[in-house]
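Need tokens for this chain, all 124 residues.
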Amino acid sequence: QVQVVESGGGLVQAGGSLRLSCVAFGGTPSRSAVGWFRQSPGKEREFVAVVSASGGSIFYADSVKGRFTISRDNAVNTVHLQMDSLKPEDTAVYYCAARDRPNTETSVHAFDYWGQGTQVTVSS
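Here are the structure tokens for all 124 residues:
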């Protein structure tokens, strides 16, 4: 069983940066794409970014493109989400998710393992 654990959330002013980290315990990095999603109160969980198992394929939501960067280090089974130029509308609980396939997907239904989430709050 794969356990996904996120860390790195917090409170930051608009224009600031945060770095989220995700570790998937018990997984096989070379076989698992990893994505980040977020959810605000009253809204559905939405796709943010995804990286393939090899790291060679990456996609971003239009709303974060150019501001967020996803990366992975398979040697330590960790995926990072670097978030720069943060805006108040980025405020949400951020979830890391892993899937049992190496290719990228953007649908919440394509991911098999989810973390508990980490709160990101951006003040104006």
